[in-house]
Amino acid sequence: MKPAGALAILLVLLAGIAITAHLSTTDLEFSRYNAGWTGTSGFFSDLERRGARDLGSYDDLVGRSDTTLLLIAPNGSFSPGEIARVREFLREGNNTVFVADETGESESLLAGLSSRVRVRPGAVCSAEMEFWDYYTVIAYPRGSDPLIGNVSSLTFNRPSSVTGGEVLVATTLISWVDANDNYHLDENETLSSYGLLSGERLGNGTLYVLSDPSLCINGMRDARLSGDNGVFLAQLLSLHPDLLVEQTHSLTGRADPVLAAVLWVKKTTIITISALIGSVLLVAVAFWRRWI
Amino acid sequence: MKRLPLLILVILSAVFLALLTPYVLEPELYTKENGSYTSYHSDPAIMSAYSYERSTDIQAMMQELLDAPQQIVLNIRIRDFEEAQREFEQYKERSEYFSNVVVNLDLSESAVGDFRRENRKNMEALERMINESVRFDEVNRLEIKYRDEENPALLYTVVLEGEAIQNTLKKTSTQFAGREPDLLAVSSELGLNTTQYQEAVDTMEAIVEEDRRAQQQREERQLPLPPASLSLSVSPGSGRYLDLLRVAGTYTYSSGEQVTLVLDSRDWQTVVPDEKGVFSTTLPIGRIREGQHVLFATTGTLYSNLATFSVIPTDTVLSFWIYQGSDHWDEVLLDGELFAGEIPVAAAPVRILVDDIEGAVVETDADGYYYGSVNLTKGNHTVQAVFDDPGFPLNPSESEVNQVDLAPSVPLLLAVGVGAGALLLASIGALWYVRKRSPPVLPEKAPARSGPLLPRTEPAPSGEVLPGAPSPVDTLIRYKELFAAGDWSGAALVLYRSVIDRFLPADTDTLTPREVASRVAGTPAGAAFGSFVTRYEEVRYGGMPLQPQDRLVSHWNEVLAAFEAGGGA
User: Fold this and answer.
1) Same domain, A270 and A245
2) Measured between CA atoms, how close is B354 to chain A, in angstroms?
3) Which of A114, A134, B48, B137 could staple A125 via S-S, CB 3.0–4.6 A?
């Protein structure tokens, strides 16, 4: 092999590694492919270790029992059929639906489920804060529930609030909703305790609504927090033996166009095999024709 | 296909260019500011841990402040004023600390801020309660003393003073109780237990009731006043701030003795009756508390009747303005006026509250005008002026609350100013340096520069004189002119340039003399040129003076000779 050819192969390899590394991640908020602090790659690694599966179609919910369905950072509207499937999922089996939403995107789903719980958009601030930032709210459990069993406090990151249902985690009294988004406590912003996690029994199942999906991001997982966030998430994944993760209406399933194409290729076996064979053939032809 | 590696490189370059394109116009790929905050959350990795009071600590502090008055009023009730004062000082200290916490956490515009304001008023009420109770206790002791001395006149003054104090205590207690509903509402909102506070309100009312009964008994025990040859009257019987009351009396059988007028148990003025035994003076109502006052005259052995008058309080208006200090950004200048109706209030203390804590006390001048300054830390603050001195027959008044934000705009302006100044200075310095370093314009060089130059990449042929270069004679004439003018550096440069322009290619312009010398070193002219450059550098850069018959000229002649003999580069 000529030196120029060897150099070209080396460059191609290095470039391939760099491009692969670049294309295999993204900076989209909450994305499972985002390894940065705003992503949920760490949380999804935990899910994979726990044997969680993506929810391909809402029809897969039919007939399931002892299963937890996670809907982290919902995005977009839910069709009546999808809502009906979730409703059946909750009523028929001993199942749990866990929604983590701070924007109110879950409104149509919660209304369709006839739930009393609602997410109220608007950042909750508190003097009970983890860092020098009112948005890093520390909230405390109320009552008893398997989800908050061994949790003494939780640290949130710019949460909204929830109303309705049984409030399971709430802020202290010296907290307020930053209605005008100016970070400061103004005269028309009243101090009160705000619910950040609510639970509600629906049929045989349980619905939990958390007002801050940021608990699942890498930045919060890696930070040293006074709250028992890790315990809480572990308990969430241990509620039932089976775990499903919604990916069609969740920000966690988002990817950049190029990464999405790569993921599509990876998911489609025949295309993956074809791509591998094609690569090998190309190298063989290159040697045969003495291109390199 | 030999071009394949090149093709791959081209393709790879195109791919990386395509990937980099979105960032070409944004060279700032990552900063703390643009990468650590999104609309959903903040990056915990860049945030500082919070180690200050949390909600639970703040609630505990408020509970302590709410409970504190009970112990203070209990001590007042058992007349242990030292202990009451000690408890009050602790309460005051905790209140100030709490106030700082509220400011630091920017909670002023909330129920916590309301609690702080109510607490501040309670603190003032308790301080007044302690002070007036101490005075009332003193009146009780004086009553016993004067009763033992069987002095009905002084006893009467004690009765009246006791009544004034009792009125003040009642007023304070009423105000304290009047705040109870507001404070209870705020406390309920903040989840505080108000039991001890309510007990404190009840205890305070009980103290006032006990004092009222004591005062009533004192009045009942008042001894009848004997007729005297010394009489006194005050007219009119009441007045307001800055009114003048006329005090007049007679001393029958006077023999020129001085008469002392005693106002509220204290010597006030001395007068001398005229030949008819009549004396008079005026009493301006200035710094005297509101309510009933008593005046009598005495010669030491004789006592007059007791003349009473009442002082009616007047409403006041307090204006207040603040400005940021021009020299110190953390200094806030303030001024304002205090008026009782149309009358300016003179020599009155005005308290300046910074975040509800007394930051300064200023005094009004004869026109009711006051001014001063307070130093603030960075951040948001409230500043308010308050007049509430009970020594004046004036109702208290407060200015509006002024918000002061000593935020980063000030340092930013300063930083921009300093930065711009530094840049300006640097520019001026650079300009000066560049001008200083520029070689003097040599008229002789102009033809050389305007003449055709050899291509920069090709050396001059050995020994060949480049066209347009000044002749050695012209060069020497110019050298001597500069030498005569004392410009040795310029003179040396003329010689150096003549060699460069005559014999060396144009690209040597970019080289230093030493680099040129090293390039020429291998040629027959190398040794002579090296010696020339050494001397040239001594004169040009070392600042050494040229001599009339300097070595530089002899080395220059050697260099010319060597080059013309064909020893050039």
Assistant:
1) no
2) 19
3) A134
Q: Which domain does A284 fall in, by range?
A: 3-25+256-288
Sort out which chain A residues have CB atoms less than 8 A from B111's CB and list them.
190-191
Q: Do residue B111 and residue B153 come from a single domain?
A: yes
Query: Is there a contact between A132 and B48 if contact means CB atoms under 8 Å apart?
Result: yes
Q: What is the dihedral angle through the alpha carbons of B4, B9, B10, B11, rounded to the nearest 10 degrees?
A: 90
How many distinct structural domains can be found in chain B?
Answer: 5
- Residues of B near A (Cβ–Cβ under 8 Å) read 1, 4-5, 8-9, 12, 15-16, 19, 36, 38, 40-45, 47-50, 53-56, 58-59, 105-107, 109-112, 189-191
How do residues B327-374 score in pLDDT, each as one tens digit? 556 788 889 999 999 899 999 999 999 887 888 899 999 999 999 988
What is the C-alpha separation between B357 and B85, in angstroms, rounded?
A: 19
Distance CA B123, CA B117 (A): 10
**Closest C-alpha among B526, B446, B536, B433 to residue B493:** B536
Q: Please give the single-letter amino acid code of residue A26.
A: T
Q: Does residue A33 fall inside a structural domain?
A: no
pLDDT beyond 50 at B453: no
Bridge partner list, A229: none
Q: For residue B31, is it within any domain?
A: no
CA of B102: which chain A residue's CA is closest?
Answer: A127
- Looking at residue B55, its pLDDT comes to 78
What is the total residue count of chain A?
292
Q: Taking CB atoms and an 8 Å cutoff, what residues of chain A touch B112?
A: 174, 191
pTM equals 0.60
Structure token digits, residue B208: 């006032």
- Same domain, residue pair B424 and B456: no
Task: Report, as an integer, the average pLDDT of A33-40.
Answer: 91
- Per-residue pLDDT tens over the stretch A207-253: 999 999 999 999 999 888 988 999 999 999 999 999 999 999 999 98
Residue-wise pLDDT tens digits, B160-171? 788 888 888 998
Does the predicted interface ipTM exceed a cut of 0.90? no
Q: How far apart are CA B207 and CA B74, in angstroms?
A: 9
Domain housing B373: 317-385+397-406
Contact check, Cβ <8 Å, B112/A174:
yes
Give dist(CA B126, CA B118) in Å, integer: 12
Least confident of B17-21, B259-263, B326-330, B508-512: B326-330
